[in-house]
Hints:
Blueprint: E1 4-10, E2 27-28, E3 31-32, H1 33-43, E4 48-53, H2 57-64, E5 69-72, H3 79-84, H4 87-90, E6 96-101, H5 109-121, E7 126-132, E8 141-144, E9 150-154, H6 161-164, E10 168-177, H7 178-185, H8 201-208, E11 213-217, H9 230-250, E12 254-255, E13 262-263, E14 268-269, E15 274-275, E16 280-282, E17 286-287, E18 292-293, E19 298-300, E20 303-304, E21 309-310, E22 313-316, E23 319-320, E24 325-326, E25 330-332, E26 337-338, E27 343-355, E28 360-372, E29 377-378, E30 383-385, E31 395-397, E32 402-403, E33 408-410, E34 413-415, E35 420-421, E36 426-427, E37 436-437
Parallel strand pairs: 1-4, 1-6, 4-5, 7-11, 12-15, 13-16, 14-17, 15-18, 16-19, 17-20, 18-21, 19-22, 20-23, 21-24, 22-25, 23-26, 24-27, 25-27, 26-27, 27-28, 28-31, 29-32, 30-33, 31-34, 32-35, 33-36, 35-37
Antiparallel strand pairs: 2-3, 6-10, 7-10, 8-9
Domain Nucleotidyl transferase: 6-217
Subcellular location: Cytoplasm
Binding site for UDP-N-acetyl-alpha-D-glucosamine: 9-12, 23, 73, 78-79, 101-103, 140, 155, 170, 228, 333, 351, 366, 377
Amino acid sequence: MSKIHAVVLAAGQGTRMKSKLHKVLHPVCGKPMVQHVVDTLAAMQVEDIVVVVGHGADAVQAELGDGVTYARQEKQLGTAHAVQQAAPFLLDKEGTTFLLYGDVPLLSVETLTALRSYHEEQQAAATVLTAVLPNPTGYGRIVRNETGEVLRIVEHKDASSEERAIQEINTGIYCFDNLKLWKALKEVKNDNVQGEYYLTDCVGILRNQGEKVVGFAADDPDETMGINDRVQLSEAEAYLRRRIVVGHMRNGVTIIDPSSTYIETDVSIGADTIIQPGTFLRGRTTIGTDCVIGPQADLTDVKVEDNVSITYAVMVEASVAAQATVGPYAYVRPGSEIGPGVKIGDFVELKNAKIGEGSKIPHLSYVGDAEIGAGVNIGCGTITVNYDGAVKHKTVVDDGAFVGCNTNLVAPVKVGKNAYVAAGSTIHQDVPDDALAIARERQVNKLDYANRMPRKGKKQS
């Protein structure tokens, strides 16, 4: 096959979104819609990806970074004019060029690959990606000849009654022979009511030049959905979310209720894992095999190994090793590493904490900026006092230590190997290996104290 190039049009203002955020930067399943387009092209190993920017150019470039080439359309004078801005980068190159839009994020690698293959098999100058709709009102119709080649694209308002009966529509997505594309673009005129240069005119120009123009119908018309407002954004989100969960289920993942499960594009899940309802898996989260995630688990950029259980928990930029359990109602913050077989229980918060193999933090504790060894037990209500108002300090609890309930570990501090800390202690000095640390006020009982104190509702003599 020939080399592939692509032009992605992302210069429009997108006023119907009614948003400060550029239209193509609105996320679909956690990723800006234009990033979906670029990632699909990258997965196809497209050699040159030129993104045409205009309104919000700086924001679009900041999001996409250096992986693509940018062309700027200072004035929006139509789709053909937008494509022409990419000429300095593609004009003299041979191969096939895709023309895509930054607000059409649902096109799959499979559909674009099939479009390209058909285009090159037909040795066409241009191939239009079409869709067959039960109600094509408002869309440009594809008019073919008796051999199936595309004669022209007729806009709905200009179509005859016979042409309006055609259900095959123009999606606005094309494959072009690159050299023939630029030749045709030179002939596009703006002699229309809007005074704009339309890409659709290239079809008629190429036909007049004796070139072959064909159409390729998408198997799933919903893939060609463009997003112009918040309603269409929600429809695209629902479509892509469904496609994502179906893909995971076909790969051996059990998803109890797909309609209440939210999985973003870059998440990976191993076989025989069960995803319970109400679960959100975001970013680049990876989950191993034989896990149970949820219900109501919310994971962002989390690495989860095999045979892990996470329920009613929020986790961000953390990792969980095999055989560990997290939750219910745990909050695991960035930088935390949960080791093999660890138990993180209810109402436990971790932040930048490394928890060693087999350790337990069962409930109602805060462990931050800490390194907890293997086989450690952290009692209920334990707090690592890590912040002095200016600097975060580290707590270290060595292997086999036992920290009693309601303990404050005032960092920087270290509890030695196999040491004990008595319940109710405030520890601000290091505890040696094998020692017992008790740091609490000696109990004093004031006898008959209650009888000398006034009480509500009781008259005093």
